[in-house]
Design brief:
CATH class of the largest domain: Alpha Beta
Number of domains: 2
Strand content: 5-15%
CATH architecture of the largest domain: 3-Layer(aba) Sandwich
Number of strands: 13
Radius of gyration: 22 Å
Shape: globular
Distance between the termini: 10 Å
Largest sheet: 7 strands, parallel
């Protein structure tokens, strides 16, 4: 079986869980004799291609005058690039970036239909332009490559998946890792919502990473429940590098938040819980690892609460730096407001770190040995953290049983379920 797969990022060049999930899934599929052609907007040359054939869309020429292309480029519904969006950036930051580009004379757009196009591979001001170009490239690849099924990850690649389906006539699966309601709450970007909905309507099957996400897809997008299938994410145990426990330069316990510092991830609830804990026990330190549009606000809140001497903001971490933080951590907390799944708690448990997670997360559906709280319950969160750092028996139990539990959540098993979805529509 051969799969033409579209994704927006691939390790080591990632901004969050999407790239990690794509990497784990492709490795798992390779163990079940599934060959994957994985298309990314921009490849850097240092990606691990043991389990996939990686195609760099920036290296694929497109000539609108070429007779070979004429018959399928017309299938693309060209998305106007005038409404630029940047995910996870607030209006103030967007305005600042816009004004800076105006001063330097930089253009938001280049020629989507030009023969050669260099993708940034990021989430910048010309994102919709890149999504459009990516769909055009998908048409060309679908006409030339030999494959059985198309698999598109998240909304950025849904237009590409649709284009490939219309060109090749092969079945399409779209993978919903996060919905616009997760990212933006009720103040959704209508354009992104429409792209998500069209992708799922055109797809033969929709894979969601949790039942939480499945319910949103059915109830808020009107997708037929019969074609929506949940396949929970997993964790890649081979990615755990041998990091010895690092001796902390301080005696206090360390509590860690690791993720995008955005509304979706609930960083403000973590800070309020930290404040409550420090009022009872000043010998605790807190790490907030990540970046996002709420970072400055969170730094200001920590300063206002006068707990800055107990707080560390590290910026975005990946790879071995994540493992190093877990090696020093006594508790990991994921207070997400709306988390389709949440791979990071699995990575923490893999490193023998007990976790506190919100009930509003997909990973809560599969974990037993984790303390679960409502994201808004600051008292409950503070109590859970306090218990894990003060009662050795509880902490030891969650470390031991949590690590054992997560060892059974393998990408190989998730990939087998995905393969079954492929087989159901081929």
């Amino acid at each position: 079986m051969r799969v033409l797969m579209f994704g927006w990022e691939f390790p080591p060049h990632i901004t969050g869980g999407l790239g990690t999930a794509c990497f784990g899934l492709t490795k798992g599929l390779s163990k079940h004799n599934v060959d994957v052609i994985f298309v990314v907007p921009k490849a850097y040359g240092d990606e691990d291609q043991q389990a996939v054939k990686l195609v760099n869309a920036s290296n694929v020429p497109f000539d609108i005058t070429d007779e070979e292309y004429k018959e399928f480029w017309s299938h693309i519904k060209y998305m106007e690039v005038g409404s630029n969006i940047i995910p996870y950036v607030d209006p103030q930051e967007y305005k600042r970036t816009y004004e800076e580009n105006k001063k330097t004379g930089e253009s938001f757009t280049s020629n989507v239909f030009s023969k050669h196009y260099e993708f940034s591979g990021n989430y910048g001001l010309n994102l919709m332009e890149e999504v459009s170009r990516y769909a055009l490239i998908a048409s060309g690849l679908a006409a030339k490559e030999n494959f059985d099924v198309i698999h598109a990850h998240d909304w950025l690649t849904y237009p590409a998946g649709i284009a490939a389906k219309k060109t090749s006539g092969k079945p399409l699966i779209v993978h919903m890792h996060a919905t616009e309601f997760d990212r933006s709450g009720e103040n959704i970007n209508q354009q992104v919502y429409e792209i998500e909905r069209e992708g799922m309507m055109e797809a033969d099957r929709v894979i969601t990473v949790s039942n939480l996400t499945r319910n949103i897809v059915i109830n808020k997008y009107g997708i037929n429940p019969d074609k929506v299938i949940t396949v929970h994410n997993a964790v890649d145990h081979s990615m755990l590098q041998d990091v010895k426990n690092i001796k902390k330069p301080y005696k206090e316990k360390l509590v860690t938040f690791l993720g995008r510092i955005t509304m979706q991830k609930g960083p403000e609830y973590f800070i309020e819980a930290a404040h409550k804990i420090l009022q009872k026990d000043p010998d605790v330190r807190f790490v907030m690892a990540g970046s996002g549009d709420m970072l400055n606000r969170m730094i200001e809140r920590v300063a206002h609460l006068r707990i800055a001497d107990k707080f560390h903001f590290t910026g975005f971490l990946k790879g071995n730096d994540v493992n190093r933080v877990f090696s020093m951590s006594d508790v990991f907390v994921m207070p997400s407001v709306s988390e389709p799944f949440g791979i990071v708690p699995l990575e923490a448990m893999r490193s023998s770190v007990p976790v506190v997670i919100s009930k509003q997360s997909g990973v809560a559906e599969v974990l037993v040995h984790a303390l679960k709280i409502d994201f808004w319950d600051i008292d409950g969160m503070a109590d859970a953290i306090y218990g894990l750092i003060h009662y050795q028996g509880i902490s030891t139990m969650f470390r031991k049983l949590g690590k054992k539990e997560v060892e059974g959540l393998k990408w190989e098993n998730a990939a087998l379920k995905v393969k079954a979805v492929y087989e159901s529509i081929i």
